[in-house]
Each structure stands twice: as structure tokens, then as C-alpha cells.
Give the backbone structure.
Amino acid sequence: MVMVRFLFFIAIMYFPITLSAQNYWDDWERKTVNEFYSKIDLPVGTLDASGILVSYVYSPTSLKNGTYKVTISDEEGDFYVLQGTDIYLTFSSYVGYWGYFGKEGVLDVSNYSSYFFISPQSDKKEQKRNVNNGLRLNK
């Protein structure tokens, strides 16, 4: 009987911990990060294998595991940039055009997978910017 009470007590103590373990951004739209890169500037006159001038290359890099509040905006091609850094990334699927102002959210980096959770406020700020610029959204 004592053992049953003890297990019941442990179960009741564990339940609130599991409820509070969920992050506030877990319900936000999630994008899977494919890879992180750093942009390396090359000396003037550098050529690629085809003889075309190149001024930089993207080199794979890693980020320290953790959770970061960031803004990510478009770069050229399939690359996106963490604003205010020299870190670039690609996503595992098409995410669309995010423009110069980008999307605000939470970047969750771990050894095995990394995700960008888009803040719902990010879209509201984009709508406000478009209205302020004289653009109307059809929503």
C-alpha cells in the first residue's frame, strides 16, 4: 500500500513538469533547417572551375546548440541569412520569399536537427509594413 501511494505521489509530481516542459513556440509554424553556412569572401580575381569570376563561397559551419531569438531574411538563391550575423542557412523544403525584413522567430539548434519556429507576430508586422508602404493585402 505504501508503494502504491509513493508511485501515485511521483506520478502527480511528474504531471505538472511534463505540462510546463512545452515551449511557447511549439505551436508556431516550424521549418526544418537543412544546413548552416558561413560566407567566405575570396580575393579579387578568383575563378571557379569554369573560369567564371567568383567573389565568395558558402562553407558549411555549425552553431552552438541552443535556442536563439532571431530574424531570418532572404539571401540569394536558396540561402537565407540570420540578420546581424555572417551565418547563412538553407531549409529542407521551400519556404517562400521572406524579403529584406524577413521573419522573426526562434531558432532551435541541436546536434541532430535544427528548426526555425516562425512567430505569429512576424506576419502581423509584415502586414503592417505593407499597409504603411501603400500596399494592400488580399486577405
Notes: The longest strand covers residues 29-41. The CA atoms of residues 33 and 113 lie 7 Å apart. Confidence is low (pLDDT under 50) at residues 6-21, 127-139.
